[in-house]
Amino acid sequence: MNAREAILGRLKDDSEVDIAAEAAALLGTPERPAVDVAHVEAEFLARLALPSVSASHDVIETISDLPAAVARYLDAQGEARALCLPPDPRLSGCDWSGFALHQDAAPDEAAALAIARKGIAETGSLVFETSPQAPMLPNFLTLHHLVLLRVADIVPWLEEAPLAGPQPRAHYWITGVSGTTDIEGTYVRGAHGPRFLHVILLRGDFPHMSEQ
Amino acid sequence: MSGAPAEATSFKARADAALADRILKVAVERTAGTAEAKRAVAVDAFPDFQAARTRAAAIKDHVVAHLGHYLEQFEANATAAGAKVHWARTADEACDIVIALCKTAKAKSVARSKSMLGEEIGLPHALAEAGIGRVETDLAEHIIQLADERPSHIIWPAMHKTREQVSALFKAKHRTPHEEETIAAMAESARRELRTQMLGADVGISGANFLIADTGAICTVTNEGNAELSLVPPRVHIVTAGIEKIVPSMPHAVHMLRMLARSATGAALTQYTTFYTGPKRPSDRDGPEEMHIVLVDNGRTQMREDGLAEMLRCIRCGACMNHCVVFRQIGGHAYGGTYPGPMGAVLTPVLDGLKQSRDLPNACTMNGKCQEVCPVRIPLPTLLRGWREKSWREGLEPQSLRAGLGLWAWVATRPRLYRIGTGLAVRAMRLLGSKGWIRSLPLAGGWTRYRDMPKPAAQTFMDQYRKENGR
Questions:
Q1: CA distances from B3 to B9, B198, B212, B332 (A)
Q2: What is the complex's ipTM, to 2 decimals?
């Protein structure tokens, strides 16, 4: 008997219950942090500012304001106007003159920009999904992680991260910067990944793009 | 001292050594104390944590009751997403599968993201035996690897190390170590050291905090982001996961994640929570070409049959050990197994055998604190008592203890004799004490070496009872 048969053989389930129905019933109305659904943007920004998340943010009206917002951030940080930019037409359509752009992240990448699929007010999390236009590695290698998030994509709870349907290779939530408490429980930022997280909220829409 | 090999000594010897180690006590107290305080704040801020615990326990019980169904569902969905699912009955089978996969991939080095299951099955040792280089990428596991020690906590494996010890270690082993004596500079040194190694690894190995049955995804959580940096660049991603890690769907995982982060570190969520579903898609720009998931039993089906199903609820948060008075005194190494603290005292007899770990269920004060804080309501004291009873039934207790208890039982069933005996003992003990305490007691040196014994009251309860009632 192979290992699979041996293990499953010991886990035979002769019960007549409707397993799917039982699983659904277990969810019911889950206990979760209170979120003022009428003010999800304010709730999201409040969580972003918590010491445990400690992300900065900026607000722009249209996507054409994006390069200026990125320049503002990099200048303030004393970083060069160099940026790892994923091959996403919504980003490459902007006027990036004055920036040194590249698609592949260097091992010591200084700044990378990405678009979040959702923002979660409950935790201040940003939701990402991999795709041909959205690589994953730059968001972990970079020192400064810049994230574009449409205000319309902020949702109250984690359950509303895009969960249903076919899954991408990786679906991930980022809630703050890379941190560790592994030495004497003392918190240090930038353990392996980003040391700074900067969210740029877009009040308008992505141009010429159909709804995702 | 705290890194002494567990196999070589008895639990009593290890606990003695740990109690005498003042630095260890300080190190454990700093981290566990902080974790306890942070959890309390997080739990107070949560709307109805007690109801959420009940729900979490019910979700896990449902999964364990229908484990076969969910494993098959997970396997079908993971396979459809392009992952290859493997099954292992034992630790050795699991290691053999991983080593064979590494050899097929011609791996010279693997990057490992902290996984307690990997420790449980002895994967670090198996990789070394196979001559495959291993880079531990979690900062604490990196410290442990450099020091050639074992983890002493499931969330903070290096909690027994002080900053001075870590500094000395990094200075001896890192290529360009820190100069400034700060914890931030030490973390930066590890970042420099590990980054190139992670990017150059041939295989990334992780555990899974959750397996999502209806999508075939595996979920990892970290605060450092080391899992993603270990698992995205290599050509092959291997997951080793206990079969009890299944949850039915993503919304169920969301509930468990809320419980896990708050119970472990007091955070609302870990910094990085990632769901990996199969390998890289054809036009993706990064990700591994192959994904393998090894589903490991290693005693879990047996636990389900042997009345330990409740222990399969465990989500490895570490709250039980952070709140355990025994763990806080002796740290994790003294337990001698992969898992320390109350959950470790329940699991170690399953993994290493009751005969050699029967001291662990006895090293419990039964104060019930672990059960109070467990996010999935595992009745840990009850399960520990179950091991004590089994140990007694199987005759594993030493002859001296059996004879002593037999004598006590004989006397205790003879009330007159018992009263005379306790009356004499109280008088004798009062002669040995001064100012309310006994500093040294014959036959109880193990107790009085580390703390004084309270001097008994002048009269026994029965003496006073008789006096009060005029009999």
A1: 12, 27, 37, 10
A2: 0.96
